[in-house]
Write a structure and sequence with these properties.
The complex is a heterodimer of chains A (about 400) and B (about 300). Chain A is an alpha/beta fold and about 400 residues long. Chain A contains 13 helices and 14 strands. Chain A has a six-stranded mixed β-sheet with strand order 2-3-1-4-5-6, with helices on both faces. A four-stranded parallel β-sheet of chain A has the order 8-7-9-10, with helices on both faces. In chain A, strands 11, 12, 13 and 14 form a four-stranded antiparallel β-sheet that branches. Chain A starts with a helix and ends in a 10-residue tail after the last strand. The relative contact order of chain A is 0.13. With about 300 residues, chain B is mostly helical. In chain B, a hairpin with a 3-residue loop joins β1 and β2. In chain B, α9 packs across α10. The radius of gyration of chain B is 20 Å and the shape is globular. Chain B starts with a helix and ends in an 11-residue tail after the last helix. Classes of the chains: A alpha/beta (about 400), B mainly alpha (about 300). Chains A and B meet through α2, β8, α8 and α9 of A and α1, β2, α8, α10 and α11 of B.
C-alpha cells in the first residue's frame, strides 16, 4: 500500500513535469526561425548558386546556427535559371515550408517574377544579388530590402573609371534582359565620351558573339564595355581574345570576371585577363575584420576564393540574423523586424555602410584589378574608391 | 557600306551555317528515311562535345579530341538506337517526341553528374589561335575559318557517300520508299543503325568543332536543335543537299540579321525601340523565312524525289 501510494505521489509530480518537457520541446521547435533562400542550383548557372549556398552555410556555421539565442535554419529553393521556376520555388517555400523571411535571387528577371509572391504574403524579402531599377524606384516596397547593390551603380562606377582613363569612344555589349538594360543605362549615365555602338544580345541563349565582335572591330572604339555574368563571361572572354580585338581594344567589364571564372582563365593560360580592370563594391582583400574572417573561412572550407555572390550571401545571412536577434525570434513583429533591417547593425564584409531610404545600401564602389596572389592564384585586388558613399539614382523615385 | 564588315559577317554566317549543316545532315536522314522524330539529336552534339573535351584536356591534342568526339557520339548513337529507339519506329510521332525528350533530360542530368556543373572549357589549339589576314584586308579568326573548311570537306564527303556509293544508294532508296527498299532485300534495321550512327557522329563532330569557342555544357544541344529543325524543314526533309543549302541560308540570315537589322530599324524607329526590337526580330527572322518557304513550297526547297 505504502509503496503504491508513494508511486502515485511520484507520478503526480512526474507526469506534469514530463508533459511540460514535451511542451518545452515543441516550443523550441516552433521558435526555430526559417529563412527561405532561392538561387540557381541546377543548369550550368548553378556554379553561381553553389557558391552562394556555400557562403550561406559558412555564415550559419560562423553563427553557430543561432541569431542571438534564437535557432534558425535556411531552406534552399532552386530557380533553374528561369523566372517561372523561380516563382514556383518561392511559392513552395512560403506556402509549404512556411518560411519566415525570404532571401537569395541572382537574376533580376527571376526576382521581378517572384517578389510579388513574397510581398503579398506579408513577408520580408532581402535580395542577395539582383538589384533591378523598378524595386529601387517606382515599385519600391517597405518589405523589400537589397543587401547587394542597385544594378546601375557598378557600371556607373565603371563609367567614371573610363573617363579617368581617357577613353573617348566606347562599344557596349550586354544581354537583353532587366539587368542588362540597367547595366547599360548605368555606364551611359556617367561615361562622358561617345558611344559608337551597342548590341543587346539574346539572353541566355546566345553564347556566340561573332557578329557583334565583327561590328565592334569595324567601329574601332577606344574600349569595349560588357556585362556577361556566369558562364557567358568565360565564353565571351575567350572569343574576344581570338576575334582580333584582344590585345588591341581594352575590355572593361562588370560582373563578368570573378573568382568563379578566374580559375578557368588561369588553367587556359589567358594571360590577357591579368591586369584587367572592373568595378565592384567588394573584393577578397578589402581590409576589415569581418571580411578577413569570411575570406579565410571560405578558403579553408572550400579551397578557393569566394566570389562577390558569395560575399553578398554571407552578408545576407548575417544581416537577417541581426534582425532576428533584434526581435528575439518573434517573426510576427514585422514592424520591429523592418526597423532592425533599416538600422543594418551588423559587421558587413564590405565594411561600414548605411541602408538607404529605398532599402538599397549606400556604399563605396571600388576599382579592382586581376592579379596573382602570393601563391600564384589569380584573384581580384582592390585599387581605388571610385564612388564614395554612393546612393542609386532611383532612390528619389521611391515613395514608401 | 563597309564591305570588309559585310564580308566578315558573311563568313560568320557561313560558319554558323556549316555547324547547322553538320547537325541537320543526320537529323534529316533519320527523319526522312526512318520517319523518326529525334529531339535527342542535340544530345549527341552535347555528348560529342563532352567526350572530345575530356580527351582533349587529357591529351592536349585537339585532333584526338575531335576523333574522340566523333567516335564517342557515333557509338553512343548506335547504342541508343539499338537499346531505346528501335522499338519506337512503328509508334506515332508523339510517342517518339516524348521518348526522345526523355533522353534529353536523362543525358543532361548525366552530363551534370559526370562533369562539372558549368561544363568543360578547352583552350583553342595553338596552331589555330588568333586571326589570319585574308585578301581585301579582312582579318578573320583562324579557328572559325578552320570550322568552315572542315565542314565543307565533310559536306563533300557526304555528297560522295550519298551519290557515289552503294550505301548511299540504299540510303536514297530508303528515303524515297522504305517499304519497297525492304521488299527488295535491303537489311533495313542494319541500314537504320548505320544512318543513326553516322548522324550521331556528325553531330558529335559539330559539338567538338565548336567546343573551343562555346565550351561544353549540359543543355547546349537544345539551343541549336530548334534551328536545326528549321533547317531540315526549309531544305526538305530527307534531302542532304537541301539541308546543306538551307543551313547556309539560315546561318546567313541569323548572322547578317544580327549585324545589320538594328541599323536598318534605326532608319524608321527611335534608337530605344530599335535597340530592343533588333535582337527580338533577328531571332524571329528564320521562322519568318521558314513560313514563307512553306507557303510556296510545302515540301521544302529540295524534297527528295519520291515515287
Amino acid at each position: 500500500m505504502r509503496t503504491a501510494k508513494k508511486l502515485s505521489q511520484i507520478s503526480k509530480v512526474l507526469l506534469p513535469a514530463v508533459a511540460l518537457s514535451f511542451v518545452g520541446v515543441t516550443v523550441a521547435q516552433a521558435d526555430k526561425v526559417k529563412i527561405g533562400f532561392v538561387t540557381t542550383l541546377s543548369t550550368p548557372a548553378a556554379v553561381i548558386g553553389n557558391d552562394m549556398r556555400d557562403a550561406v552555410n559558412l555564415a550559419v556555421k560562423h553563427l553557430g546556427g543561432k541569431a542571438g539565442d534564437v535557432e534558425f535554419e535556411v531552406v534552399f529553393g532552386d530557380d533553374e535559371f528561369n523566372p517561372q521556376k523561380g516563382k514556383q520555388a518561392t511559392e513552395r517555400l512560403i506556402k509549404q515550408d512556411k518560411v519566415d523571411i525570404m532571401s537569395g535571387y541572382i537574376w533580376s528577371h527571376v526576382l521581378l517574377a517572384s517578389s510579388k509572391t513574397v510581398l503579398d504574403a506579408g513577408k520580408i524579402l532581402i535580395s542577395a544579388n539582383a538589384g533591378p531599377s523598378p524595386l529601387a524606384g517606382k515599385n519600391c516596397n517597405k518589405n523589400f530590402f537589397n543587401i547587394s547593390w542597385q544594378n546601375d551603380q557598378t557600371p556607373m562606377a565603371m563609367g567614371e573609371v573610363l573617363n579617368k582613363k581617357g577613353v573617348k569612344s566606347l562599344y557596349i555589349m550586354a544581354p537583353n534582359y532587366a539587368a542588362g538594360k540597367n547595366m547599360v543605362a548605368g555606364v551611359e549615365r556617367t561615361f562622358k565620351g561617345e558611344i559608337v555602338g551597342k548590341d543587346m544580345t539574346k539572353w541566355p541563349d546566345q553564347i556566340d558573339w561573332s557578329a557583334e565582335m565583327s561590328k565592334a572591330k569595324a567601329a574601332n572604339p577606344d574600349g569595349v564595355f560588357i556585362f556577361y555574368p556566369g558562364k557567358h563571361g568565360g565564353a565571351f572572354m575567350k572569343q574576344y581574345a581570338e576575334s582580333g580585338l584582344g590585345g588591341k581594344v581594352p575590355l572593361y567589364t562588370v560582373f563578368t570576371v570573378d573568382s568563379i571564372g578566374l580559375p578557368k582563365f588561369q588553367s587556359a593560360n589567358m594571360e590577357a585577363v591579368l591586369g584587367s580592370t572592373m568595378t565592384q563594391f567588394w573584393a577578397p582583400d578589402l581590409d576589415n575584420a569581418a571580411n578577413k574572417k569570411f575570406v579565410d573561412g571560405f578558403k579553408a572550407e572550400y579551397g578557393k576564393y569566394p566570389s562577390f555572390y558569395a560575399a553578398q550571401s554571407y552578408d545576407a545571412i548575417n544581416y537577417i540574423a541581426s534582425a532576428i536577434k533584434a526581435v528575439g525570434g518573434d517573426m510576427s513583429k514585422t514592424d520591429d523586424l523592418r526597423a532592425a533591417l533599416e538600422a543594418a547593425d551588423f559587421a558587413s564584409v564590405r565594411g561600414d555602410f548605411k541602408m538607404g531610404p529605398n532599402h538599397f545600401p549606400i556604399q563605396n564602389f571600388y576599382s579592382r584589378e586581376v592579379v596573382k596572389d602570393a601563391d600564384g592564384v589569380w584573384t581580384t585586388s582592390i585599387r581605388d574608391v571610385v564612388l564614395a558613399n554612393h546612393q542609386d539614382t532611383y532612390a528619389a523615385e521611391c515613395n514608401m | 557600306m563597309d564591305w570588309v564588315l559585310i564580308a566578315e559577317q558573311t563568313l560568320n554566317g557561313v560558319q554558323l551555317g556549316i555547324l547547322l549543316f553538320l547537325l541537320a545532315a543526320g537529323l534529316t536522314l533519320t527523319f526522312g528515311i526512318m520517319d523518326f522524330v529525334n529531339l535527342a539529336h542535340g544530345t549527341m552534339y552535347m555528348m560529342g562535345a563532352f567526350f572530345g573535351a575530356t580527351v582533349m584536356l587529357a591529351t592536349k591534342s585537339y585532333l584526338l579530341g575531335i576523333a574522340a568526339g566523333v567516335a564517342g557520339s557515333m557509338l553512343l548513337g548506335c547504342l541508343v538506337e539499338r537499346v531505346a529507339l528501335r522499338s519506337l519506329y512503328e509508334r506515332n510521332h508523339l510517342d517518339q517526341v516524348l521518348a526522345t525528350f526523355g533522353l534529353i533530360l536523362f543525358f543532361n542530368e548525366l552530363a551534370q553528374v559526370i562533369w562539372p556543373t558549368d561544363g568543360l572549357t578547352v583552350p583553342f589549339p595553338t596552331w589555330l589561335g588568333g586571326t589570319v589576314m585574308l585578301p581585301l584586308g579582312i582579318e578573320y579568326s583562324k579557328f572559325r575559318l578552320a570550322i568552315i573548311g572542315a565542314g565543307l570537306l565533310v559536306a563533300l564527303g557526304l555528297w560522295l557517300l550519298v551519290t557515289k556509293t552503294r550505301l548511299g544508294m540504299l540510303i536514297r532508296a530508303g528515303a524515297s520508299n522504305r517499304q519497297m527498299a525492304g521488299a527488295l532485300g535491303v537489311n533495313i534495321p542494319l541500314l537504320f543503325t548505320i544512318v543513326f550512327g553516322v548522324g550521331a557522329g556528325l553531330a558529335g563532330l559539330a559539338g567538338m568543332l565548336i567546343t573551343p569557342i562555346l565550351g561544353a555544357t549540359a543543355g547546349m544541344g537544345e539551343v541549336i536543335i530548334i534551328q536545326t529543325f528549321v533547317v531540315i524543314v526549309i531544305g526538305g526533309i530527307g534531302s542532304v543537299r537541301g539541308a546543306f543549302i538551307a543551313a547556309i541560308i539560315t546561318g546567313l540570315i541569323i548572322g547578317l540579321g544580327r549585324s545589320f537589322l538594328d541599323v536598318l530599324l534605326l532608319t524608321f524607329l527611335s534608337p530605344n525601340a530599335a535597340e530592343s526590337a533588333g535582337p527580338a526580330l533577328s531571332s524571329m527572322l528564320i521562322y519568318i523565312f521558314m513560313a514563307v518557304v512553306l507557303f510556296f513550297k510545302p515540301q521544302g526547297l529540295f524534297p527528295p524525289k519520291s515515287g
